From TrEMBL:
Keywords: Membrane, Transmembrane, Transmembrane helix. The keyword Transmembrane helix applies. One of its GO terms (biological process) is CAAX-box protein maturation. Residues 225-311 form the CAAX prenyl protease 2/Lysostaphin resistance protein A-like domain. The chain crosses the membrane at residues 84-106, 174-199, 211-235, 255-272, 302-322. Pfam families: Rce1-like. The keyword Ribonucleoprotein does not apply. It comes from the Eukaryota. It comes from Spinacia oleracea. GO terms for molecular function: endopeptidase activity. This is CAAX prenyl protease 2/Lysostaphin resistance protein A-like domain-containing protein.
């Protein structure tokens, strides 16, 4: 039975659901309304029915009880109910980083034993190999992530959530907010580029990042283009958003407010790309991804934004390549 809280907060406990019997918390409190709600548990999760232990606050103005809560109606300000401790967060973050690095090293060492010489491969074969590499890496990192957090099941509904339902819901529609987030990210990144150019006095030079290294494959053939779209538009967004937003950002809300967790995860996301010259733009993109995820609590939202960003760049460069533009000069 729930315990009675001190003034100005009190506890109303409803018992004996069949006879609708009701126990008041303290005789000194008089109020007109009865609360007949029931709290029960299914698979470790609390549900509400016809009787419930309800925590309320006392309103000194009119003498009536009001539900107790944090008063935060904006989803973007609410924290996740993180079930794992800091040890699990630290170990899992380290394991994901190491598995990403080790997977690449193991694959590079395995290629000669399989009789594969990357130099002798055609562009299509290189694109297919890159797609396979990204697929293995994604499976390995996510496998470790889910394995290390599996012991805390059943998890809250808004952790690791990939929900296709209600894509255009005004409050939590994943596709609607993906569109809003993508438009916001485009505008913010454009303004960031203008600001950097204004303060530095010159156009920022692009570093030799993953996109530049993929340049020979861009527009080379349909097979290469499809492989690149699969890597940048499906596998990479799925991996990065699940790790950086689905796990790391949500876990940070155990200690800091959600907007602060968005900023921290955006900074880690930008640093993880190992391109210091592009940190401002990546940070802005990471912030948009985090805010969109906080709004919908659905990983499909940041995954869609990330996929649109990556695949949009690939498709645009492919189009320019076909039109005869020197995309190497454009990237630099």
């Amino acid at each position: 039975m729930a315990s009675t809280l001190l003034s100005p907060t009190f506890q109303i406990t409803a018992i004996n659901r069949n006879f609708r019997t009701f126990l008041a918390p303290h005789p000194s409190y008089a109020y007109p309304n009865n609360f007949l709600l029931h709290k029960y548990t299914i698979n470790g999760k609390s549900k509400l029915d016809s009787s419930l232990s309800v925590a309320c606050s006392y309103n000194s103005k009119n003498g009536t009880p009001q539900p107790k809560g944090d008063g935060l109606d904006w989803p973007i300000l609410k924290r996740w109910d993180v079930p794992w401790p800091w040890q699990t967060i630290s170990l899992t973050s380290l394991a994901c980083g190491l598995s990403f690095v080790l997977t690449g090293l193991i694959e590079n060492q395995a290629l000669p034993y399989l009789g594969i010489n990357v130099v002798d491969l055609s562009l299509d074969e290189k694109a297919e190999l890159l797609f396979l590499d990204q697929g293995i890496t994604t499976a390995a990192v996510l496998g470790i992530l889910f394995s290390l957090t599996k012991s805390f099941q059943p998890l809250p509904d808004d952790l690791y959530r990939y929900d296709l339902r209600e894509p255009f819901n005004l409050r939590k529609g994943w596709l609607l907010w993906a569109g809003i987030g993508f438009a916001g990210a485009l505008g913010a990144i454009a303004l960031t580029g203008v600001a950097l150019s204004f303060f530095s006095g010159e156009t920022p030079q692009r570093e030799t990042d993953a996109l530049v290294r993929l340049m020979p494959l861009i527009g080379s053939s349909e097979v290469s283009t499809l492989c690149l779209l699969g890597i940048t538009g499906v596998l990479a967004p799925l991996l990065e958003e699940t790790v950086f937003r689905g796990f790391f950002m949500a876990s940070m809300t155990k200690w800091v407010p959600t907007p602060v967790a968005v900023v921290i995860s955006a900074a880690v996301f930008a640093l993880a790309h190992l391109t210091p010259g592009e940190f401002p733009q990546l940070f802005v993109l990471g912030t948009a991804l985090g805010l969109s995820y906080a709004q919908t609590r659905n990983l499909l939202t940041p995954i869609t934004i990330h996929a649109l960003w990556n695949s949009g760049v690939i498709l645009l460069l492919t189009f320019l390549q076909i039109q005869g533009y020197d995309i190497k000069e454009l990237l630099q």
